[in-house]
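Z., the sequence and structure:
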Amino acid sequence: MSGGSLAKFSRDLRFGLGLRLGKLNYWLVAKVAMGAMALLRRLPPDSALDFADRVARRIGPLVGRHRVALDNLRHAYPDKSEAEIRAIALDMWGNMARLAAEYVFLDQLFDFDPAAQVHGRIEVSQESIRRFERIAGDDKPHIVFTGHLGNFELLPVAAATFGMKITALFRPPNNPYLAEYILSTRRSTMGELLPSATGASFALASVLEKGGNIGVLVDQKFTRGVETTFFGRTCQSNPVLGMLARQFDCDVYPARCVRLPGNRFRLEIEDKLALPRGPRGNVDVAATTQMLADVVERWVREDPGQWMWFHKRWQISGKPRNVQPRH
């Protein structure tokens, strides 16, 4: 075997071994995660969720993403003390742990009955009920957007409860075994799901073209997206919602889940946005994308511990803009 052939064989061997080790790692992580969920299922829901919260508050500060969260919080809240910053970060880890554990009990947690006079774990105001019902009854397309706040997974469940047919765009985990588990769990309660991947925007456009409704998360970084400002700092945001709103001239509604004490939730859908428009009357995509960021920032400021601060939302090289914080 020549020197070049030997080198190529060695590279191929290392590449194949790397793939196998990567798959093994994914499999092991998925097995551990699903085993933990199986153990949680043996506990009453409240005990399991409270336990997950306590564990996450101990483990979260030990992982690398905790430093990212603290850095983001210091930039977002320059007037807060270090103790306040760290308290918000711990609340975030508790929220994320509860979100993961709540997959196990999703069918038990969502106990909302529009006809019931007494609230269970889920509460929805009369204004939000009317908006859910209005969207469900309209024979035209709608866009509903939210952020990674509280248990945002409950919003599609609520939409289905009100008879709203909605296709939700979601980003599956990189771990294929966990992705399949989560996808199967979601499908049983949340209706149509569309993985975020190449061509997803065309699939969403197809849903709207047929008069359907779509649900989109809008608070993640989008490389080469529209430049927006979030907490006074420059970031890149996905313009697809604004583009779709312009193409189909459809109503856009903000919706969110607020986590309440006692493992309870409040689901809200706000009135439709008055989207900014250009000189020709078409939806202004860049201004609309900024409007969505402003809505999410307002929500996060109200409940900062319920948002995922460990996400690398901002440009590393981006400098803070000289803007006033939005309240």
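The longest helix spans residues 3-41. Confidence is low (pLDDT under 50) at residues 320-327.

Let me know what you think.
H.
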